[in-house]
Amino acid sequence: MLQTQQADITQLDVDAIVNAANSSLLGGGGVDGAIHRAAGSELLAECRLLNGCRTGEAKMTRGHRLKARHIIHTVGPIWTGGKNGEADKLRACYTNSLRLAAGAGLQSIAFPCISTGVYRFPPDRAAQIAVESVRAYLETPCSIQTVIFCCFSEADQVRYKGLMEA
Ligand code: AR6
Question: What residues does each domain of the chain span?
Answer without folding.
Answer: 2-165
